[in-house]
Amino acid sequence: QVQLVESGGGWVQVGGSLRLSCAAAGRTFSTYTMAWFRQAPEKEREFVAAIGWSAGTTRYADSVKGRFAISRDNAKNTAYLEMNSLKPEDTAVYYCAADTRGILTRFSSGYNYWGQGTQVTVSS
């Protein structure tokens, strides 16, 4: 069983920055693929970014490429999402996800553990 706890969400003005954290409880965190998804009101959950177990492989949604950066610290069992140049359309609940099988995918079905989510609101 893997428990994921997100933090760092909040309210920010357009153009601002936030850093989300995802703390994982699990003895083999360094082998997990980690990802961030988001879900805006009345919209489907969508892929944001993913990072492989070694941090050498990352994937981003086109909508956040160049503005967001995913990273991980295996010594701290934590994944991060640095979000810059935030836009109102980035407003959503952001979810951390883990795949213990090491698969890196943009599809939510590829992740077998999820956090509860953290709200990010970007206001103009």
The shape is globular
Provide the structure class: mainly beta
Beta strands, count: 11
Mean pLDDT: 95
- Poorly predicted parts: none
Radius of gyration, whole Å: 13 Å
Sheet bearing the most strands, described? 7 strands, mixed
Helix fraction, binned, reads under 10%
Tally of alpha and pi helices: 0
State the main characteristics.
124 residues
Describe the structure.
- The protein has 124 residues and is mainly β.
- It is 0% helix and 49% strand.
- The protein contains no helices and eleven strands.
- The protein has strands at 3-7, 10-13, 18-25, 33-39, 46-51, 58-60, 68-73, 78-83, 92-99, 113-114, 118-123.
- The strands form two sheets. Strands 2, 4, 5, 6, 9, 10 and 11 form a seven-stranded mixed sheet that branches. The protein has a four-stranded antiparallel sheet with strand order 1-3-8-7, with no helix packed on it.
- The radius of gyration is 13 Å and the shape is globular.
Write the topology of this structure.
Elements: E1 3-7, E2 10-13, E3 18-25, E4 33-39, E5 46-51, E6 58-60, E7 68-73, E8 78-83, E9 92-99, E10 113-114, E11 118-123
Parallel strand pairs: 2-11
Antiparallel strand pairs: 1-3, 3-8, 4-5, 4-9, 5-6, 7-8, 9-10, 9-11
Can you describe this structure in just a few lines?
The protein is built from no helices and eleven strands.
